[in-house]
Amino acid sequence: MFDEADPVLGRVRALALAFPDATEKISHGRPAFFTTKVFAYYGGSVKVEGAYQQHDRSVLVLVDPDERTALLADSRCYVPAYLGAYGWIGVDVADDSDWDEINELLDASYRRTAGPRRVAVLDRLRQTPPG
């Protein structure tokens, strides 16, 4: 269900695996990034007229409900099958996506799922000056 050589997956993978204790597994045929709980998936689908429409180049994240509402006004965003009922949102990505925005969405999802100890580690890492 995904192409290992996909450069967009490579960028998503690099961002997701930069979070503390993040790792990757294949779940339901797609890359999933997690600590104790999954905080992002690469690829999703929506059910349209009884058939599934694939969004192979997308990131599924769990964001704050207010942010989710705002994102759904964006044409790149969709409510994914199955996970959408639990607050997840899909965001289509491409080579020319705003990767800072994608990283912010991954960050928001990580913070909702990773637990307070990992979030504290992330906060310390983000405050440490480079070098």
Automatic annotation (TrEMBL):
Pfam families found in the cross-reference section: YjbR (PF04237)
InterPro entries in the cross-refs: YjbR-like_sf (IPR038056), YjbR/MT2646/Rv2570-like (IPR058532)
Name of the protein in its database record: YjbR protein
Organism: Asanoa hainanensis
Phylogenetic lineage: Bacteria, Bacillati, Actinomycetota, Actinomycetes, Micromonosporales
